[in-house]
Amino acid sequence: TASLRFEWKPPHGVWEVIPAEALSAEPSSKVTVVSTAFPPDDASVGYERGSAVSKEWHDATTKAAVEVANEVVERIAVLSGVDERASNRVERLKDFAAEFAARAFRRPLTPELRHAVVHRQFAPGVEPDAALKRSVMLVLKSPRFLYPELGAATDSHAVAGRLALGMWDSLPDEALRGAADRNELRTRDQVVAQARRMVQDPRARAKLREFFHHWLAMDAAEDIAKDTKAYPGFDERLVADLRASLEKFVEEVVWSESSDYRQLLLADYLFMNRRLAEFYGGSGAADTGFTKVKFDPDQRAGILTHPYLLSAFSYHKSSSPIHRGVFLTRNVLGRFLKPPPMAIEFMDDRFDPSLTMREKVTELTKSATCMACHATINPLGFSLENYDATGRFRLKENDKPINAESDYTTAEGEVIHLRGPRDVARHAASSDDARRGFVRQMFHQVVKQSPAAYGVDTLKRLDDAFVESGYHMRHLLVEIVATAAAHGLPTSTPSRP
Hints:
two-stranded antiparallel ribbon, 8 strands
C-alpha cells in the first residue's frame, strides 16, 4: 500500500494539504503564465493603472512577447491542430496566426492588417516556425493589443473588448465575439444583457475577489506578526487561516442570492476552523475545514471586527486605534482624509505603561492641528478597542475597563454616539456617503478610471441603481461594467429605416 499527500503554499499562505474544495475531477487546459516581471502600475490616484510607457514597461512587454512566442511555437501542433507533415501546413499556420491576431486585437483583421502581421512575416525563404514566431511577437508588441483604449471606437467589437476587460480582465469569449460579429452590441440594453451572462463566469468571481482584496487592504497586510510572549499561538499558520476565513466570509455574502452589501457590515458570524476556534472562541467549528460560527452581535459586526483586519491594523504588541480608524474612515465610510501636515511616530515606550491605548492616542493627537482629522479617526478607532492586537475580544486593558464609547460627527454633520463596532456598522450600512464610497471604489478597481470620466452623473446613476437593487453587489458589478463598455451608445435599439 502507499499514500500521497498533495500540498501547496498559496499566496499569503503556508504549506498545507490542499483542501478538497480546491480540487476538481474535471480536466482543465494548460495555461501559460509568463515569468517576466512587469513594473508596478501607478496607484497614485487610488487604483492601479498603467499611466505611462516607461523603458521598463517596454522591456518587460518585449521579453514577455518573446516568451509567449517561444511557447506558441513549441506547442503549435496542439494549439493549431496542424500536423508537421501536412502538405498545407504553411497556409494553415497563416490562418492560425491571423486568428491569434484577431483575438489579441479584439476584432476581425482588415486585409491590410492581415498582410502586415501575417503574410509579410511568412516571406519566401523564412522557415514557417520562425515566421509564426515573428507574427506572434509583432502582435503582442502592437499598440492594438497593449493599449485597448487606443482610439475612440464605439462599434460592437470595441464594446466587446471593453466588456471582457471590465468583467474578466481578459479577451472576449466565443459568445461575445459572435455578438460583436452580428453587430448586437449597439445599445446599452444589449450590453447589459451580455454583462449579466458574463457575471456567472468564474473570471467575474476572480475580478470581484481582486476588488475586495483592495477594498479591505488585504494585500497591503504582507507581514502580520505579533509578540509571541504576549500572544502565544498567533503564528503564520493562524494568519493564513484568518485570511482564508475573511475570504470565505466575503464570498459567502457576495455570492449569496441577495448579495447584500449591508451584510458585509452587519453579519454576526465568522468562518472558523478548529485552530481559529481554539484561539478566538466560538462553538460549532468543525474538526476539518471551515464552518460558519455565530457570535454575540455585540461582539462581531462583519468586516469591522474580523480578526484578520483587526490584526492587520494593529501594532506588534497592542491595538492601534489610529490605523483602524483610518481604515474605517477611508474604506468603509468612504470619507476623504487629507495627508497629515507632519508625521508623528507612535512610540509606545514614551508613555506611562499604566495608560490604556486610548489614553495614549488621546494624548498624542490632542493638538488642534492633529484633531482636524483625528476628530473623525479617533472615535471610529476607539470603537474597536474591545479587540486586542490579534482581534480577540476583551473587556479590560492594563486592568482598566475598556472604554469604546465616543461621539462621532458624520459627513452630514450629525453627531452620533458610538458604543462599539455594532453602532459603527449600523451607521455605515445606512450612510449614503459610505454607500457611494463603496460604489466609487468598486468602479475605480473594475474600470481603472474615475466614474466622472464617464459623465458627471455616473456615480449618482450607479448609486441609485444599487439602492433600487437592494444593495446587490453582483448587480452593481454588471452596472459598472456595462456603463464603461456602453459609453457613447444609445440606451435602446435604434429603429430600422
